[in-house]
Amino acid sequence: MEEIYRLWLAAMPSAIPEDEARIHWNCKDDPTPTLDEGLRCASYLYVGSWGDRHEPENLHAGQGHCPANRLFSWLFYIGTIDHYQVPLLNEELMARLVGLYRPRRGDLPADATELPRLESFLRRHTGLYLLPQEQGPETQGQMLG
Question: How far does CA 26 lie from the centroid of its chain?
């Protein structure tokens, strides 16, 4: 049976220390008090889902056979290359994410929010820190954004 992955974007008001970003990106269970607080204060947007069949044959940042998979791949890449971080949502990142989210020939059917909704969320949260999450506000206890 195919595993399904869900993607939420969490827009957080504060920067996350590199050591806590490292713990997050490496899926460790060590304490992350700053990150935990940021997620409690975050605004969330459900982006979409994907399964194993949506994964590209060659793993490259921003690749994948559906919009949500491409966004996750790119955010993971920029969150872990050079140094561990939770990326700041600026105009450049927003443009990149919108470009990655646009449908492509070869995309497989997958659950996805509408592009204008993603663009609106990103525009409203420019200047905040953006983190992909597998769980949304109902499990984090916060608001939809």
Answer: 15
